[in-house]
Predict the structure.
Amino acid sequence: MTQVIGTLKARLAVWLLVMVSGLGTLLLMEAYYSTQRAAERAFDSQLEAAALTTADSVQWEGSTPVVRIPPAALQILATAHQERVFYAVLDHDGRRISANLAISIPSAGQAAAAIEPTWLDLTQAGTRWRLHGREYDSAGWDIQDPVQIWVGHTMSGRQVLASELFERAIIRFVAMVLLAGILMLLAMRVALKPMRQLRHRLRRRQADDMRPLNARVPEELREMVEALDTLFTRQRESRDNLLRFTADASHQLKTPLAGLQSTSELALQSRDPDEWYRALSDVHDGAKRTSRLAGQLLSLARLRHVEEADECLPLDLRKTLHDSVLEWAQREVAMEHDLGLAELPVEPMIIQGQAWALRELLGNLIDNALRYTPPGSEITLGLNTIGNHIMLYIEDNGPGVDPEIRPRLFQPFERGGRQDTQGSGLGLAIVDTIAQRHAAKLQVKERRPRGLRIEVHFPAAGEES
Amino acid sequence: MQRLWLTTALVLCCFASFQGLAATPLVVEAALDRQVVAPLLAAFEQAHPGIELSYRDRSTLEVNALTAEADPPPDVVISSAMPWQMNRVNQGYAQRLDSELANEWPEWAKWRNEVFGFTFEPIVMAYRLDLARHMLPPQTHADLHKLLSAQRDTLQGKVTTYSPSKSGIGYTLFQQDARYTDRFWDLVTALGDADAHLESNTRSMLEGLSEGRYWLGYNLLGSYAMVWAQEHPEVIVQVPQDYALVVMRTGFIHRDAPHPRAAQAFMNFLLSRGGQRVLAAQTPLFSVRPDIVGPYTAQRLRDQVGDRLYPIPLNASVLAFVDPQRRDAFMARWQREFNRYQRTPETQQQGDKTHVITAP
Amino acid sequence: MRLIIVEDDPMIARSLYNALSPLGNSVDIFAHVRDARAALRNDHFDLMLLDLGLPDGNGLELLSELRERGDRTPVLILTARDGIEDRVRGLDLGADDYLAKPFSLVELEARVRALLRRSQQRSDNRLTLGPLCLDPTAGAATLDGVALGLPRRELRLLEGLLLHAGNIAPREMLEGRVFSFGEVGSNALEVYVSRLRKRLQGSGLCIRTFRGLGYRLEEAPT
């Protein structure tokens, strides 16, 4: 089942949002500080102008400097925001020649202003002030000491201007984000067009159309289309296999059914109860064989053609083996044989596997051994560790298999060159399929002095992961 | 029994309402004649029966001092000495008024939404009819200067104007005059040469004119002069034709006003249509609001005089006028110019020789 | 002995009836869950043969209802399904045994006998198989009514075999019964088994060895 995990658009939008908000925070922080700086610069230059205007009005009357504070300087200081204003003119010794407010200027500020024009922020009675101080070289006839000029104003205008500028920056930013979002949506539509086309193509396809897509797609989709094409190819092969298998299977089923039909037909023509008995006994065997064949066909078809969702879990192969052999030993078919279990290793034999499939594998191996060996034969199953592998084996002291036939042993409907048994020829094919599913390797060996040995080599659990 | 209950309830009700009425006092320190603004105060008391108004009529000097020193401080401070009012506001003695009326008040008549100019009073020249018999009455500042030079002997001792040292308004007006042209100092020299009498208020000048002591007055408060002229036909009021200064009475709510709500109510009343209409109709103070119709409105004055009205600006530049050094320098120059051709030092007025730095 | 068969396929039902009725049992056959449910409410049965795929429901539902009621009637599940899940679920729900279709009637009979014996033994403490009888409480075994006088270990071994009569008794289990921890040798159990074999000679019973798996006490093939 396909699980929908959001849309690509939503993902892109979320990423865009994350990036925009991240970048936006930085940009807005930058905007905040730059607007603060801009407002500060704008108003500081007013302070500077006011200070210079004031400096111009310093004159010496004998040995004292006199300031005729010009109204224009105050007007400049107040700015359009009608700030409260402050000015002070200090002589060389820091004494106030003139001042309009009792704001005290820190001595550090005075020292700094003696060197170069300086700026100060201070709070006086709950009001924030911005002060500017500079030294003015003014020379009288008697004394040539410099005077210090300090001007200042309250800061509401700066705040108003900074927040106005910041507001504008935010509006610009939001507009940009909206525009970028719209453009992004458009771009997504254009960029995702090939995907839409591919979707339409796939939707229009007939169920049994397994030809390659032959679609024109951008590089990013190439891999997906190739994977789809591979999938189609595999499906085609799988379907062909299934058709072949079905044909084989129906052929295999037809043979015993034909036997049943002819046997019963012959018996019905006869009046001899002995004949009937023989025929019935044949029919019974045939029915048994047919039903077994049907069961195995079903197993094989399911194993090969149905994707099992069962997960592989770690399990102890010793227990699976013990339980299976115990079960088979009690079956009627095993009555005539010596079916046994070799001494099992003490330590757990853990593999990744599906318990039911492994039971099926063991059942088919045992069933196979029971069928292709004469009554009284010894059949032994066991487990060993070989390096990283866990080796499961089954051996018998039966007639064995011709070395030429051994490679074909695991193909469906192969009976090891024998027609004398009730075997379907599917058992080992099932074993092979299950082994492949567990990444296990099958080996067929000759057993001395006589008999056959089949080994299944499982990778130990944890080795692969 | 029932009647007794009813009576008790009535008494309680009356008592309660009496308590409510008497609840809010309001202290207004004002440099504005009580007689002049009496109709305005009456209208306020009628509109706000819950406020007990205590209107204290003082000089500009006292008002300025009380703003900083009174304990408890006044709720509202009103004065015509604009630079000193501005100085107090700049020092942070005012609080913002953010009412709708305050926000709509014309920009040129307020500062920081803290101090509001609520009257519009032109500065005029006034002369006696006697003067017109001897010479052509002056219409401009230049006319005045020429007249003083040409008719110096006739006008000797018969000219009056404000004393810049005793009167805050006078000082402000001269400062503003001096800002416009340096020829103002020629006028001062001429005034000194004509042995002009320096008075501390308009009323004294008008009385002198009516009594015949003076023939010509310079820089009188037009509001008072116009009312005076209506009752004293021998006095003629002349709005200068080159430029006429305009002063405003300004008011602000004290930062530490003990009754801020009542103070806001008072200021809002001053700025309201109702208050301004009383100003325009029943006082000679001239309303600032352009939507008021009456004999005394800024609008009507503009219609009569044209664009030659130059209000003293309600902005930071007037703060320069209260700068002690600037004031000293101005006063020194005034003395120099006024006494340039002084022939009889005995007639010099003592007050103008000393430098009064602290007082408006 | 009353048996109930719940099976909708008439051919299988008939062959089951034919195979089981000669054992001296009365056999009731139902094709629907509904009918079987009613019968199980009203009567007591000694064994139920239960098909899973029924026309009006799943046999497993019937089984779980039965067990929820506390009815311990032995249940043998018959089904064409060879999926391990059904099998596990059936056993989890309280089925006693499981036989996948197609099955041979011989095997079916053997399973049915084993289940019936188990069902009987629940009411009777004695363990019996053919002529052999063991009373675990008395600690005595008899063969054809004659006391065997078995030593303690042989008695415990026989008890273990009888508990699994008809089925393989796992070697580990037998070792656990006969020996204390630590004293078990690789061939020790075989020694006691062969002693027991000797005693049972000629009784019609034998102990068959399953290499690596265990032993089964069974009726000797004639």
Remarks:
- The longest helix of chain B spans residues 2-21.
- Chain B is about 45% helix and 15% strand.
- Confidence is low (pLDDT under 50) at residues 9-21, 345-360 of chain B.
- Chain B touches chain A at residues 87, 89-92, 111-112, 179, 315-326, 329 (CB under 8 Å).
